[in-house]
Amino acid sequence: MTAVPGRRSSTFTRLLRHGFTDPAAAERLLDLPVLAPVRDDSVLLDALGAAADPDLALRSLVRLVEAQDPDEPRVLLDTLVTAKPLRDRLLGVLGASEALGDHLVRHPGDWRVLATYESTDLHPGVADFERCLADADDPVSLRIGYRRCLLSIAARDVCGTTGVAQTAAELADLATATLRAALAIAEAAAPEDAASCRLAVIALGKCGGHELNYVSDVDVIFVGEPAIGVDENLAVQAATRLASHLMRVCSETTVEGTIWPVDANLRPEGRNGPLVRTLSSHLAYYQRWAKTWEFQALLKARPVAGDPVLGDEYIAAVSPLVWQAAERENFVADVQKMRRRVIDNIPAAEVERELKLGPGGLRDVEFAVQLLQLVHGRGDPTLHSGSTLEALGALAEGGYVGRVDAAQLDDAYRFLRAMEHRIQLYRLRRTHLVPEGDADLRRLGRSLGLRTDPIAELNRSWRRHASVVRRLHEKLFYRPLLDAVAQLSPVEARLSTKAARERLEALGYADPSAALRHLEALASGVSRKAAIQRTLLPVLLGWFADSADPDAGLLGFRKVSDALGKTPWYLRLLRDEGAAAENLARVLSAGRLAPDLLLRAPEAVAILGDPDGLKPRRRDHLEPEVLAAVGRAANAEDAVAVARGVRRRELFRTAAADLIGSYGTEESPAESDPGALVDRVGLALTDLNAATIAGALRAAVGAHWGDVLPTRFAVIGVGRFGGRELAYGSDADVLFVHEPRPGEDEQEAARAANTVVTEMRRLLQLPTADPPLLIDADLRPEGKSGPMVRTLASYEAYYRRWSLVWESQALLRAEPMAGDPDLGARFIDLIDPLRYPVEGLGEDAVREIRRLKARMESERLPRGADPTLHTKLGRGGLSDVEWTVQLIQMQHAWSEPGLRTTRTRPALRAAHQAGLIGAEDAQTLDEAWVLATRVRNGVMLVRGRAGDTFPSDGRELAALGRYLGYDPGHVGDMLDDYRRTTRRARGVMETLFYGA
């Protein structure tokens, strides 16, 4: 075979054509003396080329021949070239599994198990595997026997003799035989223990479902009972020793490696519970303490080893509990929790390579099938199967899922499982990650029959099947509901009304009958609109079910669809703009405020489909729009109606952005910084209210005086309005200031200013479909007893002579919001010495502020309110944080310019930067203030009306929890976290404010 220097040999070319990636190395291996008898055999070369990795197959073959006893190489090679079954099987395994190649090198005679080819060899069962393991009497010999059996399974798999489901079933049968052999070893080592108890091994998970991987934990539960005449405690102890020994036999690493871990953590109480329980102890736990996921795990339970009668008794006892799980009180919350993907625990770099847990992965299919089994299996025993594929077929046969959807999902699941099998087979390691290297991807693709361009074909096929799973995962739940109400196909089996109600109940719908009516109204008929709805609704229903109030989401969607259904762009927007439908679902099912705003003007749904639609519009954009609209209006009422309409639109934009940012979407995760959400909402609400007030001011002036008022006029924002920290339910706290124009009568100017104020307040509170904007001027000099509007000179005289310390404190948040900018700026110049007094506050002023705060705490908290949960006046709430920050401002802002801000959080940061407050204390106060503000915002979003305390209604409380980032069922954690955060803030406040 020696080639002419500088020229490639014909063998080199043939090797390249047969799929070898390193033909030169392969040529050297073929020239070795051990392969001399077969080096020119074209049949052998063809068979190597058919392997997943021809280079690996040849290297492993050389190692295997070299490992043979002196007389055996010729026998192996002769059989290899004359017996096609051995050739295909052996080279197929050697080209797909480096680990099994290593096993054959260690045990060179095991190649003979691949040489036989009989009909009984095609479909071995547990009994066949037990015979293969019969001689195993210690962990090492058990591992050797196990690998020998694994060789035959892998050979049938890679040669295509068995499909993925049959391979998984054979692996489960081999695991069953192995567990029995391991138990026999344990019993032989402790015959007294074996005689004193009855022990049954129950398989769960993929082993229980007859769908095991090549390398997977084998999930089990142990049930023990005493032998006749034996004390129960002693018997359970003996059974525990046997079970522990069985686990070690399978799991421990020996000179022959390990088999697989035996995992008993799915037992009652998990790893904290006893390893072995009696049957009655199992039942007592499941009846009283078990969670929904534990019944989901039991769905695949089957006895595999030990006492068969006890195993059957266990299955008979727990099966009714499994199929009643959907009736449990907490089933819906548990389902919502389980349905949320667990990809957060996967390193970001691995998410896209995860076959099992990633989006469109195996878990999506398995969970969907299991959930549908739990919901409908209580009334249909045909669904009682532990196998995912068998259960999927039964669901399709019974009309619980669409036949086409089931077929596509079946195909995708088989492909993904085949990928998983081949990935694990290579080195017999437990992994669900698709490899990254080209060599690994090439071998994987070729092992699946993709030969033209293995890497590109593999990636295309994998992404296509994962996409099918992602697309069908949700539709699997909801499309049959639409088929049940639309009744378009008279042939295919469909859900009964009762089954449809059961499914909706299981997915969180409190009124499934009403939900079905909504679905019927939306999806029935043969119109194009109904057809599009049938495409959209399966996905929308899933998003609704992922919220705290699915019923409200579906009802809102029906109302919006009724209002916009005849417009050509609405359904097209939801169908074609990827984010629009999910954004709409989140907004409609998260509470009352946003849907109410949307339903008053449904065309605002277009905001949800615009990539920039959720970005807040700043005041410098809003005010010109409002003023231009006011200028075009026929009268003041029409003018302010337009301004309030803009406010409603922007209020919806702000609320929608807040909800979507808090919940996150499939394409965009939830905002990780709650402070950023609070700041965006506060700034947006301040800007839109300021623009609305500017429009009302222009309308009021225009209605009576045309373009010029006889006095300059400005609106000064105070409180949260001036601090640009408005919540959804906040009033607009203001001061009104005017200054007569030169030559104008002062009394006439005062009457004009008062008329403007009265007219503005009237216009902004007119009963319309838009939410009113309440103006509160109670922080003015002399409070409710003082004049509504004063001249700048009058303010100056009052503050110089009569101003109290609380008024100076209120002025800390004063900022011009509308009207004459020069007058507003001069007002700020007037009050700066009051709110930022030179040398800070005197001791008397500090004592007065502390006295006022203590009086507020004792008198203003509503009767019956829980002081640990009141966001404004409660312990560590908004008042505690704000008064602390404001006291620091009044004492130090004269010398620290950074403290001269109307906003709480920037002032807190400036105090820390100036060394006036420690980093930890500043963070504690900031976290409490942000959390309390978010709770207030959340209450308004959920209930549609303002509130300073947590809702008492369970569903509203759950919706608030979801808004704050808590998973379903964690309301208690939310309340505990709030109390803990505010308790720490109160401790900081007492030190900094009261000097405690």
Rounded mean pLDDT score:
91
**Largest sheet data:** 5 strands, mixed
Number of contiguous helices: 43
Classify the secondary structure makeup into a structural class: mainly alpha
Query: Percent of residues in beta strands?
Result: 5-15%
The radius of gyration over CA amounts to 37 Å
Spatial gap, N to C terminus? 95 Å
Shape: elongated
Low-confidence runs of at least 5 consecutive residues = 1-7
The number of distinct β-strands equals: 10
The percent of residues in helical segments reads 55-70%
List the helices and strands and how they pair.
Blueprint: H1 10-17, H2 23-30, H3 42-50, H4 54-67, H5 72-82, H6 84-96, H7 98-106, H8 126-132, H9 139-158, H10 164-189, H11 191-196, E1 197-203, H12 205-208, E2 218-226, H13 232-251, E3 262-263, E4 276-277, H14 279-288, H15 292-298, E5 302-306, H16 308-323, H17 331-339, H18 362-376, H19 388-397, H20 403-427, H21 438-447, H22 454-486, H23 497-506, H24 512-523, H25 528-545, H26 550-564, H27 570-576, H28 578-589, H29 593-600, H30 619-632, H31 636-663, H32 674-705, E6 711-717, H33 719-722, E7 732-740, H34 746-764, E8 775-776, E9 789-791, H35 792-801, H36 805-810, E10 815-819, H37 821-835, H38 843-859, H39 878-892, H40 904-913, H41 919-943, H42 954-963, H43 971-992
Parallel strand pairs: 2-3, 2-4, 7-8, 7-9
Antiparallel strand pairs: 1-2, 1-5, 6-7, 6-10
